[in-house]
Amino acid sequence: MKPSWDIFCCVVDNYGDIGVTWRLARQLVAEQDVAVRLWVDDLNAFVRLCPGADASAAQQWQAGVQVCQWPTEWQPTAVADVVIGAFACQLPAGYVEAMCARATPALWLNLDYLSAEDWVEGCHGLPSPQPNGLRKVFFFPGFTEKTGGLLREANLLERRHAFEQDPAARQAFLDGLGVQPQAGARLISLFAYENPGLASWLGALAADSRPNHLLVPEGRVLGDVGTWLGEAGLSAGSCAQRGALTVQILPFVSQDDYDRLLWSCEFNAVRGEDSFVRAQWAGRPLLWHIYIQEEYAHWEKLEAFLDLYVVGLSAGAKLAMVDLWRAWNMDRDMGQAWTQVLAHWPELSLHAERWCATQAAQPDLATALVQFYRSWNGH
């Protein structure tokens, strides 16, 4: 019998929660020979990432994963061998009661948010005894060997390299999106939350001596893009030019196509967690729009990652990267920061590839989870 895994996903905001859990569920089934049920409380968000899915189905099979609607009224169901509550979501009370009654204890994991903060290493793998006698274990993704690693399919980098070495494949992908950049244009992707600093960056791109082609998948940043362009109601297919900058709005694409979009660009602005990790696997210079938290707690997470990421850069390149990220996340002017980045572009591009290779040398998150279960289970 294959080990059974239940993953619970509560879609709190945007697509980060479902993006991570859907990617994890698919990889566990494809590479680790386990049976996975993914419980989702908002299938509409799931359908955006998996266009072939049915938002009204109580249960369905997608990519070998049993995707279940998380019902308002929980019905009795068998408890899995491994139970993952993603991002501290509360499991159904009836399911927890069934866990207490299970003859063989299930491994209960709280898959936490990604962070580079120092304390993560100390908390990764720690058990948390519950009042009902169960034990929940904290499992942290991360960037060091003392964490759970990052989501990365076994053949991801091989697929990326094959795509990069096949100009016809890249052209066909861009053609499918209706993207036809002019010769020599710098292709940039933008996936972000609302950001007052966007206007200063777009202004710098428009004033550049090299043409820039900005690809913006549908999302929350469209309002700011439209304000800068002076055009309301932007949607997929919209395209406008200001100076050296062409802005093109793309449809919201599947996860696999989003990977190809990142691979097709020279620079990627991303947000949240899932796209942030995928941009690192793309091996390109990137800009992270971190999810805003109360009392600016997100700034500490931003700085913690930067401390790791800039190791090995020259002083000038390090300053350029730090200034750009701070400007983007702290509502500062982006123009001068972007100019500094352009001055160090070759070094930053090589560094992005080195960072990707360093992270790829560590076990990926899905493998780490399975190894943890086997160790816990005595195998």
UniProtKB/TrEMBL annotation:
One of its GO terms (molecular function) is translation elongation factor activity. The keyword Nucleotide-binding does not apply. The keyword Transferase applies. It comes from the Bacteria. It catalyses: dTDP-beta-L-rhamnose + L-arginyl-[protein] = N(omega)-(alpha-L-rhamnosyl)-L-arginyl-[protein] + dTDP + H(+). Keywords: Elongation factor, Glycosyltransferase, Protein biosynthesis, Transferase. Pfam families: EarP. NCBIfam families: efp_Arg_rhamno. Belongs to the glycosyltransferase 104 family. Protein-arginine rhamnosyltransferase that catalyzes the transfer of a single rhamnose to elongation factor P (EF-P) on 'Lys-32', a modification required for EF-P-dependent rescue of polyproline stalled ribosomes. This is Protein-arginine rhamnosyltransferase. It comes from Pseudomonas fontis.
